[in-house]
Amino acid sequence: MNKILIIGEHDGKVLNPATAKCITCAKSIADAEITVLLLGADTASVASQAAAVSGVKTVLRVDRAENAHPLAAIFAPQVVAVAADFTHVLGPTTSFGKDLMPRVAALLGVAQVSDLMAVETPYRFRRPIYAGNAIITVEASATRKLVATVRVASFEASPAGGSATIESKSLNVVLPTHTRYVGAKSGSTERPDLQTASKVISGGRALGSADNFKLLYSLADKLGAAVGASRAAVDAGYAPNEMQVGQTGKIISPEVYIAIGISGAIQHLTGIKDARTIVAINKDSEAPIFEVADLGLVGDLFQIVPELERLLKA
Amino acid sequence: MQKIMVCIKRVVDYNVRVRVKPDGSGVMLDGVKMSINPFDEIALEEALRVKERGTQIEVIAVSIGILDTQQQLRTALAMGADRAILVQTDKAVEPLTAAQTFLALVKKEAPDLVFLGKQAIDDDANQTGQMLAALWDRPQATYASKVDLNLNVASVTREVDAGLETIEVDLPAVITVDLRLNEPRYVKLPDIMKAKKKTLDVTTFDALGVSAEALLTTLKTEAPAQRLKGVMVKDVAELVDALKKKGLIS
Q1: Does position A90 have pLDDT exceeding 80, yes or no?
Q2: pLDDT tens for residues B104-120?
Q3: Residue B19 domain flag
Q4: Could you tell me if residue B124 is inside a domain?
């Protein structure tokens, strides 16, 4: 039996969809028994959400005031304490999981498999290297605990329909005080979340200004889409950094990705290559984005985008 | 603040298009340009800026790799690091081994701060800084886009999925840096000449007492699946039709 512990990601209210994707990954490990661990100040609501995900046997809650914010230095020793009963410890390849999981692995004295995109055996996985320009098959020892982060773009979310047992656990772990949460700033919007949206519209440097990005917001609202941006657009200050799509930003896998005025640097393409359909709109017919696009249209975005919005209205 | 350690990795230059070997044994590295991992260059730049603001701060650049890694350390010295240490090995180095090695150097050098890039652009593991912080039992501040230092505390703004987050860590601490923290300086010729006179020590895993045990085995390296070439549409109406046909819009 493979006893798999998934570190659930949440904001105290909502279970992050990345967790349901980790659960799907865990289900693809043979003979898996899946437990979701939730650390927080009050995880009652997210625990019931996690328990309802198909495939989960147990949800473990560890509620304490110090867990109000996901600080790796605070979470890691608690994860290690719980991990004693498990063969595998998985977290999502999100900023939460990337920060936390290596700290857990090091405390356990084991290697971590980062960004696993496919499970071949319980200890053999495929993962991308060189920004996705190569895929390796890597094997870890079955005699040690396996720690991994799951590439969320590679797995569908496990559906609802579960009825896991919820248990509260108190851990006798001394937590450090050397790391303190100060605050957060997010450009939270009413639009769908970039990482989980089925439709994404992204803009590049060709947009020319933050003001011109409004064209995309308007189109996105028409389509119910999330809005992203290339690194060039973010660096130019046209869009906030949390909108950045690409190797150093968010790696996404929407049903449809519409790239507007994005030339298609390798690091950007890495972030979108799991999109089901890629649409490219660019005035340069030689732009590399057209090499990966399923549908391409050469032209001036300032004419095309309003026209697109008009035709969608009709 | 007296000492800052910066960990750098020699990687295939970010401008090189990496190709997989036909026999699946790895990627082609022969004759390929090698550079300092770009994120580590940002880490070094940040350390140098701290040094230039303060007084009497020593910046040590450290790396693990083949003897040729001295080239990247010389570049780090030319950028402004005071001295460098290479832990020489011909083996592939896993992140846990790297963290154990840096820990051994931390124990020797006792830095107040360790800067690293958030990840290396070759294996994209994104682990070493966090692992070092864990083994050292010190704070970590990953994905830094702003670092403010006050006596024994660093206030670090981090790039997280939801936007920006600020945390405070007591020193000594490990900080891994993101792209937007700064823009690294260019190296000038006189600095390259000066760097030749700076100390670059070479040591080994054995001398540091690091076992460097490989925990993962790479069985195969493949090229990623290619997307099929798409079609070009001539105008917006045709694009909308095509999207409708695919059922992507109604």
Answers
A1: yes
A2: 999 999 999 999 999 99
A3: yes
A4: yes
Q: What pLDDT score does A189 carry? A: 66
- Whether B221 and A135 lie within 8 Å, measured CB to CB: yes
Report chain A residues whose CB lies below 8 A from the CB of B124: 114-115, 128-131
With respect to residue B250, please indicate whether it lies within any of the assigned structural domains.
no
Residues in chain B within 8 Å Cβ distance of A131: 121, 124
Cα–Cα distance, A202 to A264 (Å, whole number): 11
Which DSSP state fits B67? G
Judge: A184–B164 Cβ closer than 8 Å, yes or no. yes
pLDDT, one tens digit per residue, over A100-119 is: 999 999 999 999 999 999 99
Closest CA to B77 of B190, B207, B157: B190
Q: Does residue B77 lie in a domain region?
A: yes
Helices (H) and strands (E) in chain A, counts: 9, 16
Provide the residue range defining the domain that includes B22. 3-245
Residue B63 one-letter amino acid = S
Of residues A96, A114, A178, nearest to B125 (C-beta): A114
Answer yes or no: do B232 and A296 touch at CB < 8 A: yes
A141 to chain B: which residues are within 8 Å by CB?
Answer: 215
Among the partner-chain residues A133, A183, A296, the one whose CB lies closest to the CB of B166 is A183
Q: Which of B63, B65, B68 is nearest to B91 (CA)?
A: B65
For B20, name the nearest residue in chain A, comparing CA atoms only: A134
Give percent above pLDDT 70 in chain B. Answer: 100
Structural domain tally of chain B?
1
What does the DSSP 8-state code read for residue A243?
Answer: G
State the SS3 of A83-137.
Answer: HCCCCEEEEECCHHHHHHHHHHHHHHCCCEEEEECEEEECCEEEEEEHHHCEEEE
Q: Which of residues 124-183 of B touch A (CB under 8 A)?
A: 124-135, 137-143, 145, 155, 158-170, 173, 178-180
Per-residue pLDDT of B12-28, as tens digits, reads: 998 888 999 999 999 99
Output the CA–CA distances (angstroms, integers) from residue A245 to A170, A198, B34, B104, B121, in the order listed: 39, 15, 26, 37, 17
Check: CB of residue B95 under 8 Å from CB of residue B125: yes
R_g of chain A computed on alpha carbons? 21
- Report all structural domains of chain A as residue ranges with CATH numbers, in order of start: 2-168 (3.40.50.620), 199-313 (3.40.50.1220)
- The domain that holds B93 is classified in CATH as 3.40.50.620
Q: 3-class DSSP state for residue A312? A: helix
